[in-house]
TrEMBL record, chain A:
<comment type="similarity">
    <text>Belongs to the KAE1 / TsaD family.</text>
</comment>
<protein>
    <recommendedName>
        <fullName>N(6)-L-threonylcarbamoyladenine synthase</fullName>
        <ecNumber>2.3.1.234</ecNumber>
    </recommendedName>
</protein>
<keyword id="KW-0479">Metal-binding</keyword>
<dbReference type="Pfam" id="PF00814">
    <property type="entry name" value="TsaD"/>
</dbReference>
<dbReference type="GO" id="GO:0005634">
    <property type="term" value="C:nucleus"/>
</dbReference>
<feature type="binding site">
    <location>
        <position position="181"/>
    </location>
    <ligand>
        <name>substrate</name>
    </ligand>
</feature>
<dbReference type="InterPro" id="IPR034680">
    <property type="entry name" value="Kae1_archaea_euk"/>
</dbReference>
UniProtKB/TrEMBL annotation, chain B:
<keyword id="KW-0819">tRNA processing</keyword>
<dbReference type="GO" id="GO:0005829">
    <property type="term" value="C:cytosol"/>
</dbReference>
<dbReference type="Pfam" id="PF08617">
    <property type="entry name" value="CGI-121"/>
</dbReference>
<comment type="similarity">
    <text>Belongs to the CGI121/TPRKB family.</text>
</comment>
<keyword id="KW-0539">Nucleus</keyword>
<dbReference type="GO" id="GO:0002949">
    <property type="term" value="P:tRNA threonylcarbamoyladenosine modification"/>
</dbReference>
<dbReference type="GO" id="GO:0005634">
    <property type="term" value="C:nucleus"/>
</dbReference>
From TrEMBL, chain C:
<dbReference type="GO" id="GO:0000408">
    <property type="term" value="C:EKC/KEOPS complex"/>
</dbReference>
<dbReference type="InterPro" id="IPR022495">
    <property type="entry name" value="Bud32"/>
</dbReference>
<dbReference type="GO" id="GO:0004674">
    <property type="term" value="F:protein serine/threonine kinase activity"/>
</dbReference>
<dbReference type="Pfam" id="PF06293">
    <property type="entry name" value="Kdo"/>
</dbReference>
<protein>
    <recommendedName>
        <fullName>non-specific serine/threonine protein kinase</fullName>
        <ecNumber>2.7.11.1</ecNumber>
    </recommendedName>
</protein>
<keyword id="KW-0819">tRNA processing</keyword>
<keyword id="KW-0723">Serine/threonine-protein kinase</keyword>
Length: 335, 175, 237
């Protein structure tokens, strides 16, 4: 039996999760929520994480019913993400690893999402759509790497949604994306927005600047409602994401799709992806917000795979990095 | 000597092409086409590179006819219009239709497979010599076609003059 | 002339009989005969996951862009299939069938597998670079450059190799170096992910591109910027 504890805090969530051979023993989490119209800044986010991380850690151990001695390895997010929050979490992970005398393991955040998705859904070799506030990638495994077939050439889809939410002052509680999703359900009118697919890549900056510019004009002239804008934005950006996923599937000859990342729990995105998969005779795998959104267990799970394949991170190598591409990691735990 | 082909997209229709040279009653034929005595399109063969070009025009005419999207009044005027690289209808007739001074005529007939077509009726109306349709290339005015369709030497690197002409005909709605 | 027959005749019933050769992400591709010639038919079908308005606009725009860019390329002497017929109601394009050809993707894969002399692939990428430079000089942005979207016509000698560009569905007209740079970036990623260990070959392709167009320095500069954007992008969340 191998028990791994994972620490995640690369953005505005702080989570600690414990995994024992594919079983999630605990996975508590807190979110730093900012007022409407505001995004989260690194320093303040780190401060939030510092304030709660030990409580979350205690919860994780209590809920799992484990003591420090039961843990085999301490995994933490090495990157990518925001510098200050990453450092905060890494310091705690490093400290407990030394206190407990356990090996450390630095984990790529994106790989955490992928491995958690595979564990929860049992997808074998899926084309992965990874969509969150900082990432938009279409990934497929080949020759020991999670290779990026398509991605955004500018901002991430979640970033586009979050910044749109700030423009029309949508609440950040529990998350801007969740609130956009709820409002979009009430939207009826489709406002045409730029649609930018380039090969297997997408671009969202044009859509964002268009809607930033048009939103207040349209709203003040009563040409549409905020709900219509949410609806139109979702319909446009999700269609682009499904399209590049399908392009990658056609390219790789894949018959499975796994959606991961915070935006991945959006049910409209899952529904659209499901329709596409049905048309192709493919299978869709998705998870709910407990695993789509950043959490500690995903870092524990990727850490578990890495640890079992013989990897550990020396203390002197236990740094963090804000930029860490998915395809930089050699996947030593898959054929 | 004439050429009759079925349109694959509209198998109920066939297209028949006839070619005449040394025609002496061009004015009369034009009148017959206008008043419906000849149910066909009369085309100036100097503007035709190959019978395939005519088929492309006829296929598009039938397609638009069936969808109610023709730009001109009849199937036959539509065929002439479709040959032109531009969307100017009177210009199309001037270039691709026949004029009184012409001595060669390319006749295009489109008919439903149930209709009985008496080709001899048409042949009897033409005071001229019928020749094989594939000899239209003898009558083609290559220089005039290149000028009208704006085919530069560069384009001929990647295909024939016929390719260039047909490609323009097919895409003129959006080009 | 009678036209009492069913309105359904025409393209849809024709395609039922045609041989489907590929179901791509946005189009079904068939092979058939049109006015006696061998053709490839590309049918853009409704994507049910898209909002109907998005779908209709995209499908119409892409059909139009595709034929427009093909004509523009051909005018400039760049090989692309002849367009024979376009049906804007069913979004079908009837194209010349490029016979005796193989995709550059398959060609590179088999050349790599058989380890034949490297000079042949070098000549091939030189040619690709040259053609893409010509295309960009015409302000045609392909939008989906991959080695699957280039056909190599067999039979010709290396020195007069014939390459045909296909699949212009995501293409558009732009003179901006940024758009051309992204076009090359898309190709670079597709190339390197499809053909492992071809970094030097792709570098050579870019060299040939650079040598073939006066406008290339601005494009290559943008390509470098776009690449850097990928690596420097904030990846929070």
């Amino acid at each position: 039996m191998t028990v791994v504890i994972g620490f995640e805090g690369s953005a505005n969530k702080i989570g600690v999760g414990i995994i024992r051979d594919g079983e999630v023993l605990s996975n508590p989490r807190r979110t730093y929520i900012t007022p409407p119209g505001q995004g989260f800044l690194p320093g303040e986010t780190a401060k939030h994480h510092r304030g709660v991380i030990l409580t979350v850690l205690q919860e994780a151990l209590d809920e799992a019913g484990l003591k420090a001695a039961d843990i085999d390895c301490v995994a933490y997010t090495k990157g990518p993400g925001m510098g200050a929050p990453l450092v905060t979490v890494a310091i705690v992970a490093r400290t407990v690893a030394q206190l407990w005398g356990k090996p450390l393991l630095g984990v790529n955040h994106c790989i955490g999402h992928i491995e958690m998705g595979r564990l929860i859904t049992n997808a074998q070799n899926p084309t992965v759509l990874y969509v969150s506030g900082g990432n938009t990638q279409v990934i497929a495994y080949s020759e020991r790497r999670y290779r990026i077939f398509g991605e955004t050439i500018d901002i991430a889809v979640g970033n586009c949604l979050d910044r749109f939410a700030r423009v029309i002052k949508i609440s950040n509680d529990p998350s801007p994306g969740y609130n956009i999703e709820q409002m979009a359900k009430k939207g009826t009118k489709y406002i045409e927005l730029p649609y930018t697919v380039k090969g297997m890549d997408v671009s969202f900056s044009g859509i964002l600047s268009y809607i930033e510019d048009a939103a207040h004009k349209l709203l003040s002239a009563s040409q549409c409602s905020p709900e219509d804008l949410c609806f139109s934005l979702q319909e446009t950006v999700f269609a682009m994401l499904v399209e590049i996923t399908e392009r990658a599937m056609a390219h790789c000859g894949s018959q499975e799709v796994l959606i991961v990342g915070g935006v991945g729990c959006n049910l409209r995105l899952q529904e659209m992806m499901g329709v596409m998969c049905k048309e192709r005779g493919a299978r869709l795998f998705a998870t709910d917000e407990s695993f789509c959104i950043d959490n500690g267990a995903m870092i524990a799970q990727a850490g578990w795979e890495m640890f079992r394949s013989g990897q550990v991170t020396e203390l002197s190598d236990s740094w963090i990095t804000q930029r860490y591409r998915t395809d930089e990691v050699e996947v030593t735990w898959r054929d | 000597m004439h050429l009759t082909q079925v349109l694959e997209l509209f198998p109920e229709y066939t297209v028949t092409q006839l070619l005449f040279k040394d025609v002496k009653n061009t004015t009369e034929l034009r009148k017959m086409a206008v008043n419906g005595e000849i149910k066909g399109a009369l085309i100036n063969p100097s503007m035709v590179v190959d019978s395939f070009q005519i088929l492309v025009a006829a296929n598009k005419a039938v397609h638009l006819h069936k969808n109610g999207k023709m730009k001109t009044r009849s199937l036959y005027s539509e065929i002439i219009f479709n040959l032109s690289p531009t969307n100017n209808i009177s210009e199309a007739f001037k270039r691709f239709g026949i004029s009184d001074s012409d001595s060669a005529v390319h006749i295009v007939l489109v008919h439903n497979k149930d209709e009985i077509l008496n080709i001899n009726d048409i042949i009897l109306k033409v005071d001229g010599q019928q020749i094989a349709v594939d000899r239209v290339s003898d009558l083609t005015d290559v220089a005039k076609i290149k000028k009208l369709y704006k085919v530069a030497p560069l384009e001929e690197k990647c295909g024939s003059l016929l390719d260039a002409v047909v490609c323009r005909m097919a895409t003129k709605d959006v080009a | 002339m009678a036209h009492s027959d069913s309105v359904k005749a025409g393209v849809p019933s024709y395609l039922k009989e045609a041989q489907m050769i590929k179901q791509g992400a946005e189009a079904r591709v068939y092979r058939g005969t049109f006015l006696g010639r061998s053709v490839v038919i590309k049918e853009r079908f409704t994507k049910l996951y898209r909002h109907p308005e998005v779908d209709e606009k995209l499908t119409r725009r892409r059909t139009t862009q595709e034929v427009r860019s093909i004509l523009r390329c051909r005018r400039a002497g760049i090989n692309a299939p002849v367009v024979y017929f376009v049906d804007y109601t069913t979004h079908c394009i009837f194209l010349e069938d490029i016979i005796h050809s193989v995709s550059v993707r398959d060609h590179i894969a088999s050349a790599q597998a058989s380890e034949q002399n490297p000079q042949h692939l070098q000549t091939l990428v030189d040619k690709i670079g040259e053609i893409l430079a010509q295309m960009h000089d015409e302000d045609v942005i392909h939008g989906d450059l991959t080695t699957s979207n280039m056909l190599l016509v067999s039979g010709a000698e290396d020195h007069n190799m014939k390459l045909v560009l296909i699949d212009f569905g995501l293409s558009y007209i732009s003179a901006l170096p940024e758009d051309k740079g992204v076009d090359l970036y898309v190709l670079e990623k597709a190339f390197l992910s499809t053909h492992p260990k071809t970094e030097t070959l792709f570098e050579r392709l870019l060299k040939s591109y650079t040598a073939s167009s006066k406008k290339s320095p601005a494009v290559i500069k943008k390509l470098d910027e776009v690449r850097l954007r990928g690596r420097k992008r904030s990846m929070v969340g």
